[in-house]
């Protein structure tokens, strides 16, 4: 702390004098407070008093504004002066104390990060959190400083003052309402197409098998009801819910049906006809093994395959809806909404391919689950990752944040305490960026997704509010005689439950969840078994899904059930605990009803509960509740302690409305028992909670949810494909206005007749005008001569074409007619990053293989996908004497540029080759060229602030590569690959600074290329599908065994992948991931019929053999 003696002296003075004085004045109150909470040896603690009483009274607005000003000060002397001024007499002592707390807190976390102390308990977790917090603070500071450079000094002061304003909940609610136009009947003329995605579990509209396994739970019910409810909203024409198609023998045949109607939308509420495609539907896309039902942790390698299948359906449906309600123009999805991490990853890719908004709902978050499991101490991080694929899940959630316009959460707690753990979301930076956007000040490409709280809805159609009668008050005497025989008909599920109990008249504690470890059922059972008073007063019912044989269940569920049975035996709970083997979904309301009639309590003790639909259901049936404090229940209910607190006004928001129970720490067994006992024993409290739940439950209806949902989405930045709509459809050949260049190609490619004067006969065949043959022949020869010259070095980007001749070039790429596309994406480079001659040999052998089959050759085209710039690509083709017009497309600079050789679209007014301008507009989304360039240089050439000397912290690792850079690609030369940061680490740091992009180490680890979020070699292929109609299923991608760091993305998907053995000896994969991250098996399927290999060597026969093998395997899927 050299140079900061004034801080040390001030702190000592506080501790010696101020703290003692305050302690003397507050000792009785503090001691009393400590005694009330049960602290042994209650004694006043100055630190605790300072945190709980003094700091809470400080106005954060002025304090945080001051802190930002100090941090933003670049000059060290000026910064010290500012700090000294803070502790002048003008500042209030309490503000000075709070400011010191900020400083000490920062020092503590830096100490934890810099000086490991393995001997301390739980030090690894403390150090991990300290490091992340330090990195996030550094990232936030860098982002703010970088954005401030573009402002004048006067603007800086104004901006800081405005950005740190802390709004009260009332002001924030008033502003949000005033800024948004609530969705209403006025929107009924809209014809919206909404896409929902929920991949894992067993999804169907009727007879849902909830609780069958850990993947088929509340999320399945939620997405089904959301799809139905949205389809009934004014202005919504069609809702598609995408999930996995499963044709496995161990599941019902209905999960193999490609389409299932949830609601029919042929007519609206007024009886007006809407159209045959209106309504809500489940769309099942086959991906992964067709005959196996896989748990969600095993689906990761097949995500790309799902995306390709879903993309094909969306494109087809957009055209169909365009014909029905779009006036002939495609009706693109209004929004693509991913549910959970796997669907979020998929939605991000689909959103990028279609350029439409994406919305995300996490349901359950990986980082939070990881922290909870580590807190339990039962598994190491490696064991957790092996079981749950947690690192792959976390990366999918980060990717989802990169692309999402809006993140819908169930509770405010989810935003602050769960999403706040992610690199891609920073609450403070998000406020800064939002404030700048409101003022019209540029954020320089930085972005944080907007998070909004929209509690889930519920269908109250089957809920009957019981009257205050003896029967409704929980007296079962009128229903069950003393010998346990029912005098009148009761629901069968009641009999199934009550047969377990010695005394069924006692209040029933109900827990309803699948037997998943994170649901924490065993802790509940221990709490019940070890509390004698609770056992005397109540029974316990555990509804743990459906089972036939525990040995046939998944290992996690079987382990929980086995432990439950052992605990029942250990505590001798026979006659006190019910655990029926089966129940139907239709039985659930009856189960709640039984618990309510006995004046029972519902409990959700989950380690983390994102929202908890069961809590809403229980409240609707008149059940008070005890719930975990981790997650949604915090916002659903305001517990007794909160109502007695002076902070009640802060929690009295619209969403914290039920006020019908108590919150507990799910790890605290005693707290669970105490809360249950309090509700069961205090009948007045029980009645109060019951009535509060009934009075406030209407806030959670589906119409209310959907109205808020559509209102929020309408406020997003709407976007859709930007290219010209006059491009003819690939299947609509009769409507195509042919150019001469197209026709010349068609003579060889598709055996079509030559069209000269563009007249079409009645039968659809082109008419020929022989009078122009001589003149035309000369023009054609000149044009073909010009095209061939494009491969000469001196004319790479300066092909001169006369205006009259330019009109005779292909107007549109032949990609729109191709039925097969062979994409050569071989990353074959030497130690200096220069392309090897083997690359040319492979291209020539691929040409020879495909053209050996005359029928295949007629319908096939070729493309190159490379990290090289256009000039370098043309150079390598020239060395092999390969005409550039042999290719229908060139994907250059790691997917940042797409060219169509030999087309008018690929030529500018001066006759020079240019990239697809529509693609350039497509990938512009969230691109910050200058910000990325500056940040990468800073991150790569520094040691994260470590080292005492500035010279020690500077590393000369990268330098700008001007040749490889363009408007949408920032390229760097790697001087020392051994000192280069991994791509995953760089992406993490860029996210913390609000920068969203793709990073690719390429050309044998000699280059680093950064391209926009919507640009990559894989996304460029999907763009060709969307733009020109060439299905990804009909693409063959030719790779080596190694390649750039995007190699894995190119392998996975629904295309056929041909991997050539022995051609590429080394790649850049070593710079992809950090230690402890997810692995290649989480991206690429271990065994797939779509992936084939050649034997070592480059021979056309081997290539053709492998291509036929891939085609045959794909046709059998």
UniProtKB/TrEMBL annotation:
Residues 503-685 form the Glycosyl transferase family domain. Coiled coil: none annotated. Keywords: Glycosyltransferase, Transferase. One of its GO terms (molecular function) is sucrose-phosphate synthase activity. Pfam families: Glycos_transf_1, GT-B_Sucrose_synth, S6PP. One of its GO terms (biological process) is sucrose biosynthetic process. Residues 193-459 form the Sucrose synthase first GT-B domain. It comes from the Eukaryota. Its EC number is 2.4.1.14. Pathway: Glycan biosynthesis; sucrose biosynthesis; sucrose from D-fructose 6-phosphate and UDP-alpha-D-glucose: step 1/2. It catalyses: beta-D-fructose 6-phosphate + UDP-alpha-D-glucose = sucrose 6(F)-phosphate + UDP + H(+). Residues 849-1044 form the Sucrose phosphatase-like domain. Homodimer or homotetramer. NCBIfam families: sucrsPsyn_pln. Plays a role in photosynthetic sucrose synthesis by catalyzing the rate-limiting step of sucrose biosynthesis from UDP-glucose and fructose- 6-phosphate. Involved in the regulation of carbon partitioning in the leaves of plants. May regulate the synthesis of sucrose and therefore play a major role as a limiting factor in the export of photoassimilates out of the leaf. Plays a role for sucrose availability that is essential for plant growth and fiber elongation. Belongs to the glycosyltransferase 1 family. This is Sucrose-phosphate synthase.
């Amino acid at each position: 702390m050299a140079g900061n003696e004034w801080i040390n002296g001030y702190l000592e003075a506080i501790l010696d004098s101020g703290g003692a004085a305050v302690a003397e004045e507050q000792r009785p109150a503090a001691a009393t407070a400590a005694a009330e909470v049960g602290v042994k040896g209650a004694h006043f603690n100055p630190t605790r008093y300072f945190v709980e009483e003094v700091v809470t009274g400080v106005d954060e607005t002025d304090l945080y504004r001051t802190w930002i000003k100090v941090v933003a000060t670049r000059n060290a002397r000026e910064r010290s002066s500012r700090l000294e001024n803070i502790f002048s007499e003008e500042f209030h002592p309490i503000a000075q104390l709070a400011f010191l707390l900020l400083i000490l807190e920062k020092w503590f976390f830096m100490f934890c990060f810099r000086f490991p102390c393995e001997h301390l308990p739980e030090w690894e977790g403390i150090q991990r959190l300290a490091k992340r917090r330090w990195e996030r603070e550094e990232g936030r500071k860098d982002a703010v400083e970088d954005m401030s450079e573009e402002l004048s000094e006067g603007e800086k002061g104004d901006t800081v003052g405005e950005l740190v304003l802390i709004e009260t909940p009332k002001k924030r609610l008033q502003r949000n309402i005033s800024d948004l136009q609530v969705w209403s009947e006025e929107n009924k003329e809209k014809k919206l197409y909404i896409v929902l995605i929920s991949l894992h579990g067993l999804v169907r509209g009727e007879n849902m098998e909830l609780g069958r396994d850990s993947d088929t739970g509340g999320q399945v019910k939620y997405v089904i009801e959301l799809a139905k409810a949205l389809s009934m909203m004014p202005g919504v024409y069609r809702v598609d819910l995408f999930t996995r198609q499963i044709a496995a023998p161990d599941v019902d045949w209905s999960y193999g049906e490609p389409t299932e109607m949830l609601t029919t939308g042929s007519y609206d509420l007024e009886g007006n006809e809407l159209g045959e495609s209106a309504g809500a539907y489940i769309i099942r896309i086959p991906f992964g093994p067709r005959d196996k039902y896989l748990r969600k942790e095993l689906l990761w390698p097949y995500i790309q395959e799902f995306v390709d299948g879903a993309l094909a359906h969306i494109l087809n449906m957009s055209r169909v809806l365009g014909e029905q309600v779009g006036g002939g123009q495609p009706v693109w999805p209004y929004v693509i909404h991913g549910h959970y991490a796997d669907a979020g990853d998929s939605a991000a890719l689909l959103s990028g391919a279609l350029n439409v908004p994406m919305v995300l709902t996490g349901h359950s978050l990986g980082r939070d689950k990881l922290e909870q499991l580590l807190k339990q101490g039962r598994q190491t991080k490696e064991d957790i990752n092996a079981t749950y694929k947690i690192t792959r899940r976390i990366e999918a959630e980060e990717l989802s944040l990169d692309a999402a316009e809006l993140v819908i959460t169930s509770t405010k707690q989810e935003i602050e305490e769960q999403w706040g753990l992610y690199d891609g979301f920073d609450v403070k930076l998000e406020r800064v960026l939002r404030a700048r956007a409101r003022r019209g000040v540029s954020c320089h490409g930085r972005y944080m997704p907007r998070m909004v709280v929209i509690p889930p809805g519920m269908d109250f159609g089957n809920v009957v509010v019981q009257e205050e009668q003896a029967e409704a008050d929980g007296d079962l005497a009128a229903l069950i005689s003393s010998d346990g025989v029912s005098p009148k008909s009761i629901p069968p599920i009641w009999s199934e439950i009550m047969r377990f109990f010695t005394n069924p008249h006692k209040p029933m504690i109900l827990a309803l969840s699948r037997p998943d470890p994170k649901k924490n059922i065993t802790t509940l059972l221990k709490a019940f078994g070890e509390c004698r008073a609770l056992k005397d007063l109540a029974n316990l019912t555990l509804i743990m899904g459906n089972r036939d044989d525990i040995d046939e269940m998944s290992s996690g569920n079987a382990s929980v059930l086995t432990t439950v049975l052992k605990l029942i035996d250990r505590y001798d709970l026979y006659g006190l605990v019910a655990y029926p083997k089966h129940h139907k979904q239709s039985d659930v309301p009856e189960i709640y009803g039984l618990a309510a009639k006995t004046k029972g309590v519902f409990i959700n003790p989950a380690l983390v509960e994102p929202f908890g639909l069961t809590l809403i259901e229980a409240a609707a049936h008149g059940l008070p509740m005890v719930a975990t404090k981790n997650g949604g229940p915090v916002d659903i209910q305001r517990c007794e302690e909160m109502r007695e607190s002076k902070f009640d006004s802060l929690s009295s928001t619209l969403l914290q409305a039920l006020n019908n129970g108590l919150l507990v720490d799910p790890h605290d067994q005693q707290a669970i028992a105490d809360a249950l006992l309090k509700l069961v024993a205090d009948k007045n409290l029980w009645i109060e909670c019951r009535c509060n739940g009934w009075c406030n439950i209407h806030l959670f209806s589906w119409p209310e949810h959907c109205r808020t949902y559509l209102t929020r989405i309408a406020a997003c930045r709407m976007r859709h494909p930007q290219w010209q709509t006059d491009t003819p459809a690939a299947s609509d050949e009769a409507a195509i206005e042919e150019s001469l260049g197209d026709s010349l190609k068609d003579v060889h490619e598709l055996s079509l007749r030559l069209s000269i004067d563009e007249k079409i006969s009645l039968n659809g065949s082109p008419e020929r005008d022989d009078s122009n043959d001589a003149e035309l022949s000369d023009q054609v020869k000149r044009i073909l001569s010009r095209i061939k010259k494009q491969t000469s070095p001196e004319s790479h980007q300066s092909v001169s074409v006369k205006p009259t001749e330019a009109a005779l070039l292909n107007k549109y790429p032949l990609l729109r007619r191709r039925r097969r596309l062979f994409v050569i994406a071989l990353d074959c480079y030497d130690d200096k990053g220069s392309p090897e001659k083997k690359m040319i040999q492979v291209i020539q052998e691929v040409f020879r293989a495909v053209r050996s089959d005359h029928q295949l050759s007629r319908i096939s085209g070729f493309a190159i996908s490379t990290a090289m710039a256009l000039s370098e690509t043309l150079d390598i083709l020239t060395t092999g004497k390969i005409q550039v017009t042999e290719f229908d497309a060139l994907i250059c600079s790691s997917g940042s540029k797409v060219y169509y050789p030999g087309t008018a679209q690929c030529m500018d007014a001066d006759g020079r080759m240019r990239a697809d301008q529509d693609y350039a507009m497509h990938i512009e989304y969230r691109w910050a060229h200058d910000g990325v360039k500056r940040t990468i240089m800073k991150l790569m050439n520094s040691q994260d602030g470590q080292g005492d000397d500035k010279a020690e912290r500077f590393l000369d690792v990268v330098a700008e590569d001007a040749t490889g850079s363009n408007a949408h690609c920032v390229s760097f030369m790697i001087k020392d690959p051994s000192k280069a940061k991994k791509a995953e680490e760089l992406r993490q740091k860029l996210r913390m600074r609000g920068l969203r992009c793709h990073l690719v180490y390429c050309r044998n680890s000699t280059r680093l290329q950064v391209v926009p979020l919507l640009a990559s070699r894989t996304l460029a292929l999907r763009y060709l599908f969307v733009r020109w109609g060439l299905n990804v299923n009909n693409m063959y991608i030719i790779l080596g065994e190694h390649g750039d760091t995007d190699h894995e993305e190119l392998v996975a998907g629904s295309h056929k992948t041909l991997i050539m053995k022995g051609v590429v000896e080394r790649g850049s994969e070593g710079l992809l991931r950090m230690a402890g991250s997810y692995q290649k098996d989480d991206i690429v399927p271990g065994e797939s019929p779509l992936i084939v290999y050649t034997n070592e060597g480059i021979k056309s026969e081997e290539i053709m053999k492998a291509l036929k093998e891939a085609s045959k395997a794909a046709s059998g899927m």
